Regulator of microtubule dynamics protein 1 (Semnornis frantzii), 171 residues
Amino acid sequence: TQVLRKSLQRGIALSAGSFLVYEAHKLISGLAEVHASFKVEEVIEQADYLYGSGETEKLYQLLVQHKNSDDAELLWRLARASRDLAQLSSTSAEEKRKLAYEAFEYAKKALEKNESNFAAHKWYGICLSDVGDFEGIKTKIGNAIIIKEHFQRAIELNPKDATTIHLIGIW
């Protein structure tokens, strides 16, 4: 009985120790998640500042580090930054093409991550239009309805966004 009692005590101690380790892991993991989301907010704040300051290259360099992110807010901003970099007169024709397709992929990924994000729809439409410039007139015309649908969805999600209202007017 004494051997059984010691085994039982050891088992209880191990179980309690495992439980404490598990609880500590949950707590640390929770803190890491809060820290990670805080970091995303920090990057977005910095990106918005750079965008407002017209720092296109710095903005792109900041955001491209997060190209594998699952955050739609970061991804649509990266699509916009890629497109803005492509629009610069100092960007070569080859680089403009590369950046246009890159921007489209980021916008597509942003939309996949959050279908309810108005900016993801807006930038998807803009970037799809840009890609059409490289694909030819037939493709551009074929994409026009898809572009319009994304602009309309963006307006449904955010009826006060002046840029999207302007874009649907141009369409």
